[in-house]
Write a structure and sequence with these properties.
about 270 residues; TIM Barrel; eight-stranded parallel β-barrel; 8 strands; globular; binds orotidine-5'-monophosphate
């Protein structure tokens, strides 16, 4: 899926919402546990209910890998379900990969060729040769961690060098030599508020994947105020705040309502462009 197609989805559906499929068997409605693949059944119903209000889905691999081989099969079935039924939705595998080139090659093959997702989250820590193998895939996206939503982002990402440059700024500057706005996005946590202003000075046009609204307390309005561009430039994720809105029979409907509420806030922000 290319940049123009992503932008078209956002403006035609008036949403830049990504629903995070962080599917945890302990948190899904317990009556689903009688199904042969409860996590897939949950995902399917959440996807069908929320699809009108979002333009992307982000299954986080940790939740699937924690269920062993069966979980990997659930992940694959979920990707296939999305591709068959919602081909215009952008699929982000949140796996935070990155290793020596030889190993990154295998990660890239796995996610881009075998699972066939559109994009993958990547940790930049190992540098250029760990990221380049992912960028070698035409039409696919690398989503590089820049400034994450958690408190630990202060430990490394926000630290400054002798010239006052922060590590996340170095990641942004350096990585723009490897890819561009057509094949690279950055993760910036919604909890980072005004920091979006500084980020836009370095990457004015790149899309940002923004997790941290909802359960982590980030403000959509603040993210938009400092991070939005003329082409929107944002994909905002919410996982728990949407998919666990209810544990009852009405769980999918409740998720749809949460997604719709965010979509309506997003439509107002898009009007301002
Ligand atoms: O890469 C991510 O998606 C990510 C980066 C980050 O800085 N913070 C962050 O929360 N995430 C992921 O985004 C999702 C947030 O989930 P909720 O807090 O439930 O909305 C989880 O899958 C996290 O792993």
């Amino acid at each position: 899926m290319n940049r123009q197609q992503i932008i078209e989805q956002i403006f035609s559906k008036k949403t830049f919402l990504c629903v995070g499929l962080d599917t945890d068997l302990r948190k899904i409605p317990q009556f689903l546990l009688k199904e042969e693949d409860p996590a897939f059944e949950f995902n399917k119903q959440i996807i069908d209910a929320t699809a009108p209000y979002c333009m992307a889905y982000k299954p986080n691999l940790a939740f699937y890998e924690s269920m062993g081989l069966k979980g990997i099969a659930t992940f694959e079935k979920t990707i296939n379900y999305l591709k068959e039924n919602y081909p215009n939705h952008f699929i982000i595998a949140d796996a935070k990969r990155g290793d020596i080139g030889n190993t990154s090659n295998m990660y890239a093959k796995s996610f881009f060729e075998d699972f066939g997702v559109h994009s993958l989250t990547i940790a930049p820590y190992m540098g250029e040769d760990s990221v380049k193998p992912f960028l070698a895939y035409q039409g696919k996206w690398v989503i590089l961690l820049a400034l994450t939503s958690n408190a630990g982002s202060a430990d490394f990402q926000l630290t400054e060098d002798a010239h006052g440059e922060r590590l996340f700024e170095k990641v942004l500057r350096k990585s723009t030599e490897w890819g561009d706005k057509n094949n690279m996005m950055y993760v910036v946590g919604a909890t980072q508020g005004k920091m979006f202003e500084d980020i836009r000075k370095i990457v004015p046009d790149h899309f940002l994947l923004v997790p941290g609204v909802g359960a982590q307390g980030g403000s959509l309005q603040e993210v938009c105020k400092y991070g939005m561009t003329k082409e929107c430039g944002l994909i905002v994720n919410s996982s728990r705040g949407i998919i666990y809105a209810s544990q009852g029979e009405d769980f999918a409907q409740a998720a749809a309502e949460k997604a719709k509420a965010l979509q309506q806030e997003m439509a107002i922000e898009l009007e301002k462009i």
